[in-house]
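PROTEIN DESIGN WORKSHEET
SECTION A - STRUCTURE
LENGTH: 141
TOKENS:
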């Protein structure tokens, strides 16, 4: 087993932290990390489980885990497992910091495998932040 890695991506979103926080937990809202998934089961409470399956590169990728911390509007922390984590339970922490009429959203993903699939999470989370920014009409920052 390889030594785990950590990735972190951040973006300024043209919305208040509570708006972005609420979007994160709403699978029916465009821009949500769950939106457009083939299947979503989501119980956003501490120790609540989630499962979602997405189509990517011609196949279905299942993701699952549980919520560890829900502190509206500041932090969502959840475990994250998928084929791309090599079955390893990783942890994703999303923080939502106020800044005027905007929010700085930072995604920190720890305990990822140091391999191609593990490192690709950075691209995936950058895409998610872009979708959230688009949802709120944010300029690239």
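SECTION B - SEQUENCE
RESIDUE ASSIGNMENT:
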């Amino acid at each position: 087993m390889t030594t785990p890695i950590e990735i972190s991506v951040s973006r300024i979103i043209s919305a208040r932290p509570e708006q972005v926080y609420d979007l994160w937990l709403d699978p029916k809202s465009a821009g949500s990390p769950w939106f457009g998934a083939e299947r979503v089961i989501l119980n956003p409470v501490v120790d609540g489980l989630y499962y979602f399956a997405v189509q990517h590169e011609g196949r279905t990728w299942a993701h699952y885990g549980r919520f560890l911390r829900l502190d509206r509007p500041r932090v969502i922390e959840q475990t994250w497992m998928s084929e791309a984590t090599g079955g390893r339970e990783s942890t994703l922490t999303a923080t939502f910091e106020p800044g005027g009429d905007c929010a700085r959203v930072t995604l920190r993903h720890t305990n990822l495998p140091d391999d191609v699939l593990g490192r690709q999470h950075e691209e995936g989370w950058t895409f998610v932040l872009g979708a959230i920014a688009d949802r709120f009409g944010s300029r690239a920052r």
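SECTION C - NOTES
The longest helix spans residues 121-135.
The mean pLDDT is 94.
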